[in-house]
Design a protein that fits this description.
Structural class: alpha+beta
Radius of gyration: 12 Å
Number of strands: 3
Mean pLDDT: 96
Order of helices and strands: EEHHE
Distance between the termini: 29 Å
Strand content: 15-25%
Number of helices: 2
Shape: elongated
Helix content: 25-40%
Strand order of the largest sheet: 1-2-3
Low-confidence stretches: none
């Protein structure tokens, strides 16, 4: 598998993999952990971290191996 991983986020943000029949296995990240990582490690405000994550991370698509983001309830 050619899973892609996020640059600039800690391994603690990755929560597992996404396995869906007929699709590539891709890395799965917690969106809230990614935002927390940006706040704690990149000195961003919560608002800036959410905006950065939504536009630059969740909003990017780099092919069929692009990681997925999970919102935990």
């Amino acid at each position: 598998n050619s899973m892609l991983f996020l640059d600039g986020y800690g391994s603690s943000c990755m929560i597992g993999v996404c396995i869906k029949q007929g699709c590539e296995i891709v890395a799965a990240y917690s969106d809230s952990d990614c935002v927390e990582w940006l706040i704690e490690n990149d000195d961003m405000t919560e608002e800036d971290a959410v905006e950065f994550f939504e536009y630059n991370t969740r909003g990017s698509y780099v092919g069929k191996h692009t990681p997925v983001f999970v919102t935990l309830l």
